Protein 1
Amino acid sequence: ISDQKPLGCWSVKHGQILTCPVVCNFETHEYIAVHDDKVLRIWKNEDINLDKAFKATLSADVYRIHSLPQGGPVVLFRGGAARTLDVLLEAPQQEIENLISAEVIRWSGAFMEGQQPVLIFTTEKDRDFFVYVQKPKLGSLHKYKLGQQESAKPLCFTAHMTNQTVTLLCLYSNASVYQVLIPLQQDTEEEEEEEKEEILSKSLLLNLSVSGTVLKGTSLVVLDKDYVAVLGSLAAPGNKPKEYLTIWNTKFQTLQTSKELPLGTSGQLWCYEEKFFLIHGKVLTVIMYKCETSSLAAAVGKLKDSQTLDVSSFVNWNTLGDEEPVVSFQSQESVALKAESRMNLRTRSSTVGEQSGTLSVGRLLLKLKNASTFVLETELRQLMAKAPTPDLQATIGCVVTAVLDRCKTNPKYYPQHFLQEIVETRDLSYSLCPDLMAVALEKKDMHLLQICLERFPDIPEEITYACLKAFLSMSEDHLESIDINLDSAICYVDVEFNDMEVKTEILENGFSAEMDQDMCDTKIPKESWSDGESCPVGLRKAALLNAVLHSAYTETFLLPHLKNLPAQQAILFLRYLYYLYVKCSEKVNTTLPGVRSPTINQIMDWMCLLLDAQFTVMAMLPEAKDLVSNLHKFVRAQVRFYSELNKMEGSLRELQRLNLLRESQTYSIEVLEII
């Protein structure tokens, strides 16, 4: 999430449908999925093809899989029965009983009671709601009926367990949250024989209203014993409903903080390891929070400010602003970290202290909004130097954002050296300053783009493509006037294009023109190999392209952009990759000299990616056809050479074994014939 990079992507066959959320088995580090209700799939991160992953067809429809850190996965079936994954895999076609007849499961959760997993789920039948508590390993099941509420029904559920008691929270349609306490019963033979249905009583926990305006919640999560988060919409009289994320103090019945979500949400809210996850517009938004001990002083202090749903002083929501650039799921289907705010729910005294430290940065930046360039850069340098360690990255991100805001409002202002200094001396990432590379592209600051590509681990593929296109379109004459780091290319790029050395007959890595001619029906024109021997781009452009080769990417998301690369630029880029490939193959260790020079794997990956994206262009254009043909012959020559080496591998190993066994006490010369 922090790098905004997808780490893996798997898909089922056409016509198949994933029918419950995929989970991770914490013990084996495997993923578990169910498609078409009954087909179980299990695979690991390194597996590529989901169709070849482990498959088991079950005898009943699966509702949900719950994975517990120390209890292993538990499979809940639509009929109410549950099995641990280990038991299920022993006999996938085992009979699964139906425990809930005509009821429909609406929600489920899982917890650990000592070493035993505990499953709780709610069902609905004829507007009646039921709660089941099940211990799969013990085979016990207890059923309860949820007391009805006049003119209201449950919309969603959540639960947590403390001291052998399950606390079930129910969000109702009347904008109220009710609490139900369910003690975990010890199973006895008498209880198992009884099938008595106990009715659960519920108590009002929260009224979700502010100044008479009701918050219509759609999703509810528990943060800790004193705080819950509710996602919902607030409809003021005469106005269009607005969606909000709200935090409530259940101990003192107060609204702790809230934030409007103007781009809309999916109505779902998740909470995991002190992070909120929600869909805001077309972006997966992640918000960090930290709950601390609730106090009456903090609650009363907040109560005074809770008459309107404004931004709370408890939370720095700045990264959720409307002006924040978003990454569309349509243009780039990757997970994007768009908000990382710390939420401190503390006593009133500690909050005031934290506010002063947090607001000092914002106030200083506001104060410097109209300051001169010299004063701005001087103050910002001092601010970065004084920043406390925990907030250093956030402070630097604010500094860069402040500078870029001035660049946008004043086109003549662009502190090139100041920005380069920050990027070179600080551990930044794209997510901390998402506008930086966009502004650098607009200003054609090739050096800054080169530094960002080499240092940022989380650059979106769209920006990587924009940099590649800008580098390829830049004229060599213009690049001569730009200061660029040449360390990655200066050791191997031929500075004089036409002054080429004659190749020696020493065959280091399996290639010579004669060998390839022996393999082909047609001879290779001598001049055609000059494309591979001389660098098709200048030294500075080569250094910039090397920075692109070093940037991290995901093939699935980069490929659509590469398809839009103009034909001549695509051919030029392929010629450069071909040149690098030949240069690597000249060395026994296939390693280019220099600092941060491209590796053979990076060259091959980009070459394959470019050929996939520009297949039609490479097949149709005459200049590309010759280039691809020469590349094919070169690769085929290498394949033949390595094939010959593989044939010799057994003999070489035997020779090595004989040398280890032989005692070389006296001088001797031996001739070994390799057949």
Note: The chain has four domains: 13-145, 147-184+197-291, 361-454, 460-495+534-620.
Protein 2
Amino acid sequence: MSNKEVKAALKSARDAIRNKEYKEALKHCKAVLKQEKNNYNAWVFIGLAAAELEQPDQAKAAYKKAIELEPNQLLAWQGLGNLYEKSNQIDVKGELADVYQKLLELYESGDRQKWCDVCNKLVELYHQEKKYLEVAETWQKLIQVKREEGAEKAELHQLWKKMIQLLKDSTQNQDNKTEQSLLTAFEHAVNSADTVPGEDHKNLYKDFIHCLSKFPHETARLEKACNDMMALYPAVTYPLEVLCLHFVHSGTLSEEALHCFSRLLEMDASSGPGIIGFGIKCLQEKKYREAIKNLTEGLQKTSQCPAAWYYLAEAQMKIHKHRDAVLSCNQAVEALGTPEGLSLRWRNLTLQLKAEALIKIADADAAEEAVKALEQIVDASSDPVVLAIKGQAYLNKGLMDQASKISQELLLSHPDLAESHALEGFIHYSQKNYRQAERSFLNAIERKAETAEYHQYLGLTYWFMSDETKKDKGKALTQFLKAAKLDSYLGSVFYYLGNYYRDIAGDKGRACGCYKKAFDLDGTDEESGTAAVDLSVELGDMDTALSILNEVTEKASTGTAKWAWLHRGLYYLRTGQPSQAVADLQAALRADPKDSNCWESLGEAYLSRGSYSTALKSFRKASELNPGLVYSIYRAAAVEQILGKYENAIATYQEILNRTEDYVPALKG
């Protein structure tokens, strides 16, 4: 076949393809290849025809042969690209990207429009594959080309916005280069908008700031973007809210941060981040109840702020609401999710605070939970304070050997740490080794004199050590007073001060004041409440006694606060109000149905009311629960006598006299 015949055969193949006679085209091409096996056009036409005949493997092989012959010719690359685009096979995506890359190279010095079309296709392919870095690099090349062509500002603005859309899902698994490309796209987009200020521009700025807030290391950029947006849109609170939350999460509250909180609350008094910021300011100023109020309110509006949950827990710890603090710590851990960097620091701090709160609850279950919390802290074994907390948890669980082992190790490795000596003190105190406990707590105070708990435990050590140290004003009393001065929310220390003034100093008025203070601080402290009521009654101050009892019973749920119901029931009984006495004593029995004395008092209340049958049942129940209650047996007999059941009454009186011959009321009966 001559050169002329080869050209004629190729023309016939081209015409056949144009007329969709693909098999015919293949015949002509094969004829050419018999003569010229390296004919580029013949291989390209075979690729085209085979593709149309749905023979993709043959088409691919033909195009690749053509490319091998002429790697810088367009036709085969275009054909191979079309073939891959129509393919449903996933494994060709990588090869298609290579084809697009080559086409970009071939179009670069020629057809710019086709270059842009291929560039768009390549970016779309990378995006489908979630190859965000490649998306960013390719799209930036496209923008560069458009710039060189003198594209209008509006067109470039749209291209930067498109780049943001392409990369916005990449923030989850971000590498630094992609992240920087996304932020660069945002910066160009906000700076190239036509209408400033305007609604679209404002929303774009919000998205930019929201994106920046996801990257903890972009602090300077975030602060600049927020300040720039505030300058452009002074009535919009969003940048200020983000900035406030950023300051909260950073954990350092500068003058700038406090100014942000104030400014935000001036603009919107109901703003969650603003209220949270004000709550943290109150915490810094030791206004703990105000801090709790504001942080709780702020978190109802902005719940996904782990640092704020931590600060709330810290404030709750300061006023010894330990169970509330545990719940707040749980919320903080949940809001943190899977943390890293600064968030990991917050998680460690939160778990440590949770463990401290659980130890203050002081039961074995809470101690077990404390140990679990401490085990989740990263690098916990290298932190001596965390180890000391773990030692206390073991002590609360009754695991003395483990607690002692930690204590000994800490005293050797960290002899200057107050917590090392305090742990040793707690162990000695629990074993009633008061002399050794005294030495340990004095060592702890020497190293950390501002810790109220150390002074309280030293005071308790003196209280139980001997009568001499209990009565010595310079021992127990001095330590209790120091603890109360250092921590005015520590209810238990006011209870011990009450004990001192009542039992040692004989100052019932001052003692009553201390008990009332202890109970005001901790409404669940029955011992303080009972002591305050008893002393108020003794001092003739029934108003104070009743106000305490009314406050407790109003808040009490069914089956709780027995002591308050019982005390108020007895008061009503004494003051001739039997119906109210019956109601309160019944409430006390719902809390403790096996209290024989309470049943006896209820019998008296029914009797005073004239309910003889129920009075009889109550006295009998009391004597069933405690057969030694002779008075209840006697009262049952007296009621039987009133009801005219004389034989029963005589038998009951006789039963009493068989036990106690000279029991005068029974003889009289």
Note: Residues 519 and 529 are 5 Å apart (CA to CA).
Protein 3
Amino acid sequence: MADGEGDPGVFTATVLPGDPRLLPTVTSAFLGTRVFRDILHAAGVYSGASGDTHRADVPSPLGLRMAAPGAHSPAESFTLNTWTGTFSHTIQSPGHTATHQLYAHHSLVHLMASSITIRRLDGSTHPITIQLRSLFVPQSQDLDLRPGPDFQGAHYIYGQTLVPEVEGGPRPTVHMLWTPIPQSLTLGGEERERCWEFLTAVAGSEEEAKRSYSAGLSLVAAGSLHRSHVRAWAALRRSCSVELDGPLALRQALQGCLYYLLSAIPPRDSPGVLFHGISPGGLSNGTRGEDYWGHVFWDQDTWMFPNILLLYPEAARAILQYRIRTLEGARRNAQEQGYEGAKFPWESAATGREVCPEEIYGAQEIHVTGDVLMAFEQYYCTTQDQKLFREDGGWELVEAVAQYWCSRMVWSEEEQLYHIRGVMPPDEYHSQVDNSAYTNAVARRSLNFATDMSRDLLLPVPEEWEDRARKIKVPFDEERRYHPEYDGYSPGEPVKQADVVLLGFPLMHPMSAEVRRNDLEMYEPVTDPAGPAMTWSMFAVGWLELKELQRAWNQLEKCFSNITEPFKVWVENSDGSGAVNFLTGMGGFLQVILFGFTGFRITRSSLLFDPTFPDDITKLKISSVSYLGNKLEVTITREEIRMEVTETSQDPPASPLEAVLESGQRFPLWEGQNVSFPTAPGWIQRSPS
């Protein structure tokens, strides 16, 4: 395995994978591309109507490939450095090296950059030439592009998407400036080393594209363009650092997941940049026919969000604001199906209208609406940010989801319970079923949260919310002591992916350890081994809860068949099919580490912990667990837990915290003070003093 000489965050190879989908991606919150590819994507820029809506292909000048003329089989290497957020290709020839670097600037999110450096290694004085191959053509199948006047040495094109998502809706405009790329570069005979920089700026307005390009040029002139990106990216990596002592393959997978997921979120100081959600394959993918067309699913809210929330709540808020901005589309979805409130689409793009190309999923896989609200609940419990709900549209979304669930239920006279009929559960091998355990449990959780939230905001609570939460059916087999997936489920029936096991985590549906075990035992052997990558992580979390460490490790190990070499790009299914650069699988994997190994559970009043590690892991350190305005550095070994509050917010002021063990021992958590205690279950809560 290529492992960057043991560095878990540097992935190096001498040969590229044969499948170009497995090349690494370089992405910011607004721009993304796959290395050596001739297209890039801009966030929120979709073309095509309803089910044909897909990320609009923007032609990319960044897909350069170097070649050394006359060199016979020069030594080549390709490196993804996750610590610097940079991909590089190096050609080593006798007497010189040529290095091509590519990155999406982390703080200047409208700017992508590449550089070519030729370095002479001997005393020769002859010119050295490197050829540049590019497939770039300033045209697109999705944009009506036309040329504009050059700007500060850059070429300029602009245009709108061809087809709006909804009839009469907006057609986003793209403006792009780029440094012209020559066919070759030459290091003069008197030169030892030279670096050429190439910038590409893409934005929704001419003004922003020019501002970003000019900012890039100023940094180039100061010799600090790459350094400014590395500084911003490294600050993010440090503040979201997760390290463990364990097998190299596990540490590499961890750092790869953090690189790809953190690439997708907005930088810290970007309040003006609208965030457009995270699709299963990320911003670099999603052209027509690829990676679900770049649509946003429950993958964002259920699988990726909890990790982002724990490490970086400001970015978690931006994800929620994407859902708030698409609320009107969700209201229209509910209305068209004959229901009240808001029904979030199974597949979402720019408007919140349903854009799934196959009607059955949009009509039946309705659990996504509860998944969206669970992300809001986790955020509120972790931050107590009432402003999001009082002033920024959060309450309107909570209320609309509660109204939807109430209108979607029907009363069963026979069972004296509310039913939700005709749905597809997360297990997509079954459709048109009644009372999906997961769907009904997430609906109950939605209604309970809406009730709690309305009380916190001092608003009247509709009686039907509490009544329906109390009386909704969640199927349970009293004889076998487990949760059937839906009414009429027969034990042994094949299941596509994690479904009922999600009741234990993340839903935390009330159940005994016996029932939790029975659910895991019932569904583990019948879950499709070729199913999507995030599934095994949830079985691993379940077994960790029950302290079945070998069984947890066996499930976690299954994830590795979805991680491709050499750049740790995930595939949705182990046979290589489905979405690629599958952030959903990475999100599930990270939850094993951040919630499974730690035992972290977000509740209304506290952050629970109950650490447990498989045998090969001896230590876990998380640099920045965010809770109630505090950032905690948490280090866990088998013997000891250490916690230190490293930072507290001033506006609003952070709540003082304490750690409480189940034994009753209490440990105040003051900023700058290191507290340690024996590894045991407990919780972090607001200090009563």
Note: The CA atoms of residues 95 and 124 lie 8 Å apart.
Protein 4
Amino acid sequence: MLGFLKNPVVVTAEINMNLLALTVLGLISRLRGLSYPRAVVFDEVYYGQFVSLYMKRIFFVDDSGPPFGHMLLALGGYLGGFDGNFLWNRIGAEYSLNVPVWSLRLLPALAGALCVPLAYQILVEMHFSHCAALGAALLILLENSLITQSRFMLLESILIFFILLAVLCFLKFHNSQSYSAFSGSWWFWLLLTGVACSCAVGVKYMGLFTYMLLLVIAGLHFWHMIGDQNLSNVSLMCHFLARGLALIIIPVTMYLSFFYVHLALLYRSGPHDQIMTSAFQASLEGGLARITQGQPLEVAYGSQITLRNVLGKPMQCWLHSHKNTYPIRYDNGRGSSHQQQVTCYPFKDVNNWWIVKDPGMQQLVVSNPPRPVRHGHIVQLVHGITTRYLNTHDVAAPLSPHAQEVSCYIDYNISMPAQNLWRVEIVNRESDTDVWKTILSEVRFVHVNTSAVLKVSMSGASLPEWGYRQLEVVGEKLSKGFHQSIVWNVEEHRYGKSQEQKEREVELHSPTQMDISKNLSFMAKFAELQWKILTLKNEDTEHKYSSSAVDWITMDTNIAYWLHPTSGAQIHLIGNVLTWASANVAALIYMCLSLWYLVRRRRRIYDIPEDAWQLWVSAGRICVGGWAVNYLPFFLMEKTLFLYHYLPALTFQILLIPVVLQHLSDHLCRSLLSKSMFSAFLVAWFSSVYLVYCTFSPVTYGAPSLSVAELKDLRWKDSWNILIRKQ
């Protein structure tokens, strides 16, 4: 029974020494001296702020992209025990002892290191020789710009890692299609493709370009499968559903999960939540939640409310009035109604309170039971402190003469009667009988007499000194168009109990009492946050190191990342010049040869075997396609661009170099002499690549410090900005 113990248990394993050696070299090149410099390097000043906010669980919005990449950087800080206490205000600032620099930079460095063996594997899976695959990996290993970008707390190396992982998994899935469809490995690589794509998009929206490329290639492959008569309809449907699950449903689900974790971690109020709606702010701990907790949910006749404009631009503000009146005449000579001013005020103030009144009754308190206000009801809005009614009439607004002036009505006993009836329209209602709800309902107020809608002036201009520089509120004729400037929501709310004005003023200053919870669902919070990320635009300012997409191909620009405060040591984003030039030449050769082959094949002339042609085309889909989709969209973008935006496209272009070299060697160098000369050329060329890498290593790693003469020698192009201290 125990006879199997007579023989030893033997486990055998195949180890690809090329892959192992490349992984070790990648780790050495990216992890060596990772804590140096112990100072803020370029965009670490930007991403570090978000890491600190994660550590403190404070909500933020970053318009540069989804949160997954930020969470990975924060994970490094968490593993290193970072408490978030560091002021990220200046590039070059020395890190304090509580900042785990090595840990914060670890994940980008690991991602950059693993790109080296991934490049090797991709070329192997595209059915190129191990020699070509080794060349691709070494070119990635010796690319100075990729090394620099991966050694700091930045996102590009993580993005490139997930992009290459997605490509590799897709190739492995596609290669297993012919002999093991629906096997365990087939499912593994297909599902991992979807996971890697979602991670790439979750790091930066640039990952969407490669994701779309793989979807197109997968669609083409499936289109060819439809023509395969050996596959039944059931089998085709199973293939379609499997691809839909792995390449669409799983990435979408994972993308949502990134935001779920992001929102679960950042539950505290902070400076960024002011751009969110009142409902979103109220869901965060602290801030608005402390004010709104316990408010009545349903707005009723007699409710005391503050109204926040949903637009939030140029700043968040609340409907406001004060005792001052519009001047009889403006500076341009136009006359006004001389009524009480109504503005939008960007601060909490007792003059932001209004009372919802039933036009048919005189009382300003909530009845028992309360009578809720519904969509379509007519109301009057009474200013809480001055008790004057919100009004508009056919008088031009002070800064927007095409719109009507909005005021609080003062009876001057002249022929201008009050027009103070407003119809409540709930924009986000589910039915026409919806009740007006605190925070949750987005409403617009339509003037009954003139059909003008209450809104913040689109110009965002502030009133002159007589209006205390507050934002203009106008009445604009209702049109089919929709804009958030016409939408308001109740932020603070209480049920009024005091009929007497003095008692009511005391009430307006007191906190609310009732306890009704108003939590947003995850999908509502996700939809709002996603919309803010896509639409929130910081003012683009010209940066010293910004560049255009045209400059990237020939690397006519560089970026100074860090400069030692006393010596000449510095770090620059500069690529391996020879590699960049070779990548451009390889792309040009590929396109010219492809055009030549296509024309010749049209004439029934086949210069290369069919399998070589298919290999050539499939490699172009990945390498040239990857370069194109990650580069060309930048010509359509209206944003500040930097050289590092080109690195994903460059990575695909570098993979094309050994593809072209092997093709030239196999199909154009046919004599023994030409093959020998080509091999000698490759040795000389690759030695030159290594020499260029070594030449620029001091500004890649920031050490050793170079003299003024040595720095000047590194300025190979006049457009490069190498920092040289004045003697």
Note: The chain has two domains: 22-261+545-714, 294-516.
